[in-house]
# Entry
Amino acid sequence: MSPEEARAGITGAVDSVVARVGRGWADRFDPATMWCSLAEGVDGRQWRVNREGVVDGAPRAAAERAAEVFRGLGFEVRLRESGGQLVEAIGRHPDGRDVQFGARSDGSAVVTGQSACFAG
# Structure
């Protein structure tokens, strides 16, 4: 997988969620690469994307909508709730991409994604 393909894969997944859940999304930081391990002793890179926004209504409903979007993209997703204050949809794709959507009871939300690891 090329760096460009890896970036497109994860930004596409994040873009799909922010287009359907919440509003006011902005990059928390510019997409950047970070270290990952392709295999034992082989260094790689992966893209990380992080956006913050706002959701209306119950955090669980927002996380369920995000989970539906992720599942539609081929991610295996589970929901996790932390004391009623934070509900997350956490997904892993067979190609190695990871996504996480979190909505808080105050209406704040974040979606993050990590691409598959690529040579670099």
